[in-house]
Specification:
The protein has five helices and eleven strands, in the order αβαβαββββββαβαββ. With 231 residues, the protein is of the alpha/beta class. The chain starts with 9 loop residues before the first helix and ends in a 24-residue tail after the last strand. The longest helix is centred in the C-terminal third of the chain and has 10 residues. α2 links the parallel β1 and β2. The mean pLDDT is 92.
């Protein structure tokens, strides 16, 4: 059983999972400049990074200089295509924060829309990645996360765990997809509120055959020391 006290953060959730599941590698889709929690908890695994925004590649090289990694400068989705990748600034200040795929080119204004160029889009199951049969999959692509999951096809069964970003209005689709493909909800982490209501969070799933008593203790054999509220 995990020695880590459960807290709803990615780093804590990954640490708890690492105590029970022998991951074969990390597949990080939408790495931006880095995923610090994955670097921290899994420094000895190979990180397969997908990031089509070339603006971030120098930072990725710096942040992963001590981590064995393979960077693919392509976008993943549920169909292979060539689309436009628009890089935008959430704060409208010229600093890149988000990217979005679209079929049409966006006008560049230097403040909100910083760049727009064609990018290769592929399905994961068309690639020869070699992440093993028990990889940890992280998906954070600013809205098209379900399409990325769909692009894994039958190879989704090789993921030992999935962490995917969701908003309040996309949660149902992503939850349903993962459950239908043989995963159980393990955790809900990194909650973000906008005003008085929850806006987004990350859902963490574990493949059902890996849900041992170390991952999910049997509540029918109730142990009060395992019951805790997050305050």
């Amino acid at each position: 059983m995990s020695k880590f006290k459960a807290r709803p953060t990615k780093s804590n959730s990954f640490a708890r999972l690492s105590a029970s599941i022998p991951f074969s590698g990390i597949v990080d889709v939408g790495v931006n400049t880095s995923t610090p929690e994955l670097i921290e908890v899994f420094p000895k695994l190979v990180h397969f990074l997908f990031e089509p925004v070339t603006l971030f590649h120098d930072a990725i090289a710096t942040n992963y200089k001590h981590i064995q990694h393979i960077l693919s400068p392509i976008a993943l989705s549920n169909k292979s295509d060539t689309l436009y990748l628009t890089i935008s600034s959430f704060s409208n200040n010229g600093i890149a924060t988000h990217s979005q795929l679209s079929t049409e080119k966006s006008p560049i204004d230097g403040q909100n829309i910083l760049a727009c160029s064609k990018v290769e889009v592929r399905r994961y199951d068309e690639l020869d990645i070699g992440a093993g049969s028990n990889f940890l999959l992280k998906v954070d692509v600013d809205g098209k996360d379900l399409e990325v999951l769909q692009g894994f096809g039958d190879l989704i069964a090789d993921a030992g765990a999935i962490v995917v970003e969701t908003t309040f209005d996309t949660l149902s689709d992503r939850l349903s997809y993962c459950i239908q493909n043989g995963f159980q909800l393990y955790d809900i982490v990194d909650l973000v509120y906008y005003g008085p209501s929850l806006y987004q969070c990350d859902l963490v799933f574990v493949r059902t055959d890996l849900v041992t008593l170390g991952v999910r203790p049997n509540i029918m054999e109730f142990d009060s020391t395992l019951w805790s509220h997050f305050l």
